[in-house]
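Holo model, uridine-5'-diphosphate-xylopyranose. Inputs:
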Amino acid sequence: MKPIKKICCIGAGYVGGPTMAVIAKNCPNLEVEVVDINESRIKAWNDTNLDNLPVFEPGLSEILKDVRNKNLTFSTNVEYSIKKSDMIFISVNTPIKKKGMGAGQTSDLRWVESCARQISQSAKGHTIVVEKSTLPVKTAQTIKEILDSPSINNSNEDRTFSVLSNPEFLAEGTAISDLVNPDRVLIGGDDLEAMNALKEIYIKWVPESKIIFTNLWSSELSKLSANAFLAQRISSINSLSAICEVTGAEIGDVSDAVGMDSRIGSKFLKAGPGFGGSCFKKDILNLVYLSRFYGLNEVADFWQETVEINSWQKTRIYKEIVARLFGNLADKKIAILGFAFKENTNDTRESPAIDICKNLLDEGAFLNIHDCKVNEETIDKDLCRKKSSNRKMWACKKDVYSVFEDAHAVILMTEWSIYKTLDWEKILPVVKQPFWVFDTRLIVNPKVIKNLGINLWQLGNGMNQ
Ligand code: NAD
Ligand code: UDX
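Output:
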């Protein structure tokens, strides 16, 4: 096999952009191109002002300063990029299907299929196609069938393909450090030469012991399983947060005590308003769908419960808020601190803030919203519903203290660090009384709040009033 010189990544999103930036940085001998059909996204990746990148990730702009327009380019010319590349990563979106068979359960693979068709039409010589997107088990089979289909691959040229699975385990907000220092790199396939060619790239910065080979199906399933395990820990601790509230226990103490057991470990035991992000719910639902497909209903029910608890957590927080505000939110202003699904990202996909805000809007509240990185356009898109009910009942504020003016309550939704050091003495004179703080992330100091005579409801805190 000839050495890999040119790489194309289809999909310039939260995975494609950062992943290729780190590959380009560590492999200066490779030419890396990220392509996308979304012109405005590519324009933003090429913006000379690095504050305008479409993805906010700590450490990303520093890497781009080094590699962009050297051995890393961003383009909309998908066909040309495929044609000249030896290895193509498919890193497109795979959201839950909205309509038809498997709607609300399995992934919508239209973007993956369209990539396979484009590759089949445009590739030259031998091409290694790498699944970077998270996919239902057996998708590699579909990709292979499309690539090898004589009806598409109908030219006389001798084109061949190897398909590999190389799922991405990065988390948003820590993507660069996760990519630079991954726990493992998983390569699934049945063509050892192609697997070694991909390994040659990672070995430039990842220790060999962390690069593991499996068959295609184990690789695809491992990705869904890892996300299911992580999400299950969050649902477990969130279910216990409710027990804490009624028994007088404190969830922070419980997770510390449980996490100190070396067999359990302390990560992913932070109670919160429910997991968000584009991956957890989608990937568990895929696992559920796969289990039902094979008649494993008990297995499906087991994993489904992780998603049910997550929805329940959001609803129960909303109910706690309404109950404490005398069951009435009409004509009340509520401050919302944080809209991203976690800190250090501008991503709002499946953010618990969306569901909770929509419920509060339904109650007639007016919301003053602040986030450190999410822009107003995204918030408007996430909260907008039918045109008929379109009086905008929220305002996006740039200054964090301005959300408090005339507010009856504040809800801390995202754990941005500036929310941990708010000056509550400065806030007190501008709010309505009685004023409530609802802390869904356990980031305020209860003593400080209570000493100022402010009402506090904190998730999983058995000392709530
Ligand atoms: P994203 O929506 O941010 O980006 C996907 C991009 O693909 C979009 O810009 C879209 O325009 C582009 N695209 C779609 N079809 C295309 C086509 N035919 N040609 C060219 N471009 C096309 O998605 P993402 O968050 O980067 O996720 C990508 C995949 O990686 C998903 O399968 C996801 O489950 C998985 N994943 C995501 C994360 C994460 O943290 N976001 C982590 C690990 C894995
Ligand atoms: C996740 C996986 O962690 C990552 O490996 C995979 O590649 C993509 O999906 P991501 O969704 O970006 O990453 O972020 P993550 O840190 O996992 O957080 C997901 C959600 O869980 C967030 O809403 C976060 O606030 C919440 N969470 C996380 C908790 O509520 N408690 C925790 O202890 C950890």
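Residues 168-172, 227, 230, 234, 268-270, 272, 275-277, 279-280, 341-342 surround uridine-5'-diphosphate-xylopyranose (ligand 2) (CB under 6 Å). Residues 42 and 436 are 43 Å apart (CA to CA).
Archived with the compound record.
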